[in-house]
Amino acid sequence: MPIIRLIYTTFPADQAAEAEKDWREECAPLMMRQAGCQAEKLLRCNHQPGEYVSYSEWADNASIEAYLRSDDHQEIKRRTSGIKGATVVVKTYDVVS
Question: What's this model's pTM, rounded to 2 decimal places?
């Protein structure tokens, strides 16, 4: 079963559209080209403007660890940290059933 990695992110509402575009065009492709990354989706909250969840599925923890050491991960961190007022919380989950 895959490992699910969720990144909970909030952006100031006036920067949300730009953050979506950047994630779709720049960040998601970097993640999807990683060995072991099986899926990547950006979820937009219906109730809170500027709130998102990046949902990704990984083959195993070793794939996630390799990604975290990659230059691509550093580039994604650089892009998201450049948005003033953004917050990021990362969690991983095992699929139970």
Answer: 0.85
